């Protein structure tokens, strides 16, 4: 039997959640982490500078669509476990350019599964038994809920609305198919909206913080009535370790923070935090920057996760409330302009139109 630390291949480890996972797994002292990432616009190795030189961390640049290269990395690094996060992740981008989502999220996941299946088959009996392929997915595969009722359970039907969520739904189905057909030991998780440090400033929370600090409009789609269920990213990273190590093979686990908020409530909470921490010149509230803009096509009304199975089977609960997590997030963006300012200056001007123009 191989001695700890076990080697975990994390795909998409240079992204928002992946970098939190790499930091969490290495800090635990239980794992050696191999971060496999293509470094798209969303990948950023500066998010991992705390791990530079750490003997339990290695970066390997690769595209999950490149089955041969991934197969070689799995063998060279003697990988024991795989956690798959690499994806195109932004719904607005999927509306403007869906094919990149099909390529990475669907074809990429199937290509990765082929490489992982070959690797798993090459292992000895004990290592094969301990091996897991953990697919990290989203609550968006379940579609949307009415404003006033219902929650997503692991048995909710798949009903994706956007090209992004359709591509993630397809990837979930491929992962289950590789389990049912080839016996690959897989486990899946479907999580609600994450927020926290190192979140790319095209997503609602970091976009609003950065725009507010730059005195730019805070774009709220429609009336701001859509509801998301928010989870602090470090709580998600802890949950993912629990699923990877304790989840039952072939099962999926819903992960969420029981923290439903309308988008307007989220934006107002950020404004209140910034009013207290970084008041504007002239004494006006950041609330004055709120600007209602054209709604996202196919905009899901509400997401709400029932995390009971994860709580009961895995013993996981979030450590942050939405209020404590949001305060930590705002403080992080106030203190870490070195990370997000270059992203905004080079690639993105802080509006939805700017996002489209910058691609
Ligand atoms: P992200 O966009 O911040 O990061 C994605 C990472 O994947 C980047 O580092 C990128 O370079 C890499 N990548 C993209 N295409 C690749 C390819 N072909 N090969 C190798 N690497 C590639 O995404 P995120 O928000 O950190 O999300 C990570 C995962 O978690 C995704 O699968 C997403 O669907 C899922 N998820 C996200 C949330 C959320 O709120 N952000 C919630 C639930 C689930
Ligand atoms: O639910 C999990 C999903 O959460 C993940 O699977 C996705 O990868 C992740 O991007 C996120 O998707 P959303 O579309 O919910 O996140 P986003 O931050 O883009 O938007 C959150 C809400 O805020 C959504 O209702 C749209 C709205 N919004 C977003 C932006 C960027 C605005 O009102 N204004 C904006 O400028």
UniProtKB/TrEMBL annotation:
<dbReference type="Pfam" id="PF16363">
    <property type="entry name" value="GDP_Man_Dehyd"/>
</dbReference>
<dbReference type="InterPro" id="IPR036291">
    <property type="entry name" value="NAD(P)-bd_dom_sf"/>
</dbReference>
<keyword id="KW-0456">Lyase</keyword>
<dbReference type="InterPro" id="IPR016040">
    <property type="entry name" value="NAD(P)-bd_dom"/>
</dbReference>
<dbReference type="InterPro" id="IPR005888">
    <property type="entry name" value="dTDP_Gluc_deHydtase"/>
</dbReference>
<dbReference type="GO" id="GO:0008460">
    <property type="term" value="F:dTDP-glucose 4,6-dehydratase activity"/>
</dbReference>
<keyword id="KW-0520">NAD</keyword>
<dbReference type="InterPro" id="IPR020904">
    <property type="entry name" value="Sc_DH/Rdtase_CS"/>
</dbReference>
<feature type="domain" description="NAD(P)-binding">
    <location>
        <begin position="9"/>
        <end position="328"/>
    </location>
</feature>
<comment type="similarity">
    <text>Belongs to the NAD(P)-dependent epimerase/dehydratase family. dTDP-glucose dehydratase subfamily.</text>
</comment>
<protein>
    <recommendedName>
        <fullName>dTDP-glucose 4,6-dehydratase</fullName>
        <ecNumber>4.2.1.46</ecNumber>
    </recommendedName>
</protein>
């Amino acid at each position: 039997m191989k001695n700890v630390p076990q080697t975990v291949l994390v795909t998409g480890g240079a992204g928002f959640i992946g970098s939190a996972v790499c930091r969490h797994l290495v800090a635990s002292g239980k794992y050696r982490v191999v971060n496999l990432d293509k470094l798209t616009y969303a990948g950023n190795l500066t998010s991992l500078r705390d791990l530079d030189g750490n003997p339990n961390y290695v970066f390997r640049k690769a595209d999950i669509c490149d089955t041969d290269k991934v197969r070689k990395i799995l063998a060279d690094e003697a990988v024991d476990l795989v956690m798959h996060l690499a994806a195109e992740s932004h719904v607005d981008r999927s509306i403007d350019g869906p094919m990149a989502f099909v390529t990475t999220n669907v074809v990429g996941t199937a290509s990765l599964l082929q490489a992982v299946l070959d690797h798993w088959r090459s292992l000895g009996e004990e290592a094969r038994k301990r091996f897991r392929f953990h697919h990290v997915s989203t609550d968006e595969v379940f579609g949307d809920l009415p404003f006033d009722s219902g929650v997503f359970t692991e048995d909710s039907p798949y009903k994706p609305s956007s090209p992004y969520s359709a591509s993630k739904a397809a990837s979930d189905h491929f992962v289950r198919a590789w389990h049912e057909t080839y016996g690959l030991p897989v486990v899946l998780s479907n999580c609600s909206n994450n927020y926290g440090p190192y979140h790319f400033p095209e997503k609602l929370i970091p976009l609003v913080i950065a725009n507010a600090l730059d005195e730019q409009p805070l774009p709220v789609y429609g009336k701001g009535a859509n509801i998301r269920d928010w989870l602090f990213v470090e709580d998600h990273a802890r949950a993912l370790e629990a699923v990877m190590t304790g989840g039952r093979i072939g099962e999926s686990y819903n992960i969420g923070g029981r923290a439903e908020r309308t988008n307007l409530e989220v934006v107002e909470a950020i404004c209140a935090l910034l009013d207290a921490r970084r008041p504007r010149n002239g004494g006006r509230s950041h609330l004055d920057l709120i600007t209602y803009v054209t709604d996202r096509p196919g905009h899901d009304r509400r997401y709400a996760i029932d995390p009971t199975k994860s709580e009961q089977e895995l013993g996981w609960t979030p450590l942050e409330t939405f209020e404590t997590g949001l305060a930590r997030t705002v403080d992080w963006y106030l203190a870490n302009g070195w990370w997000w300012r270059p992203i905004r200056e080079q690639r993105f001007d802080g509006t939805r139109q700017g996002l489209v123009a910058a691609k």
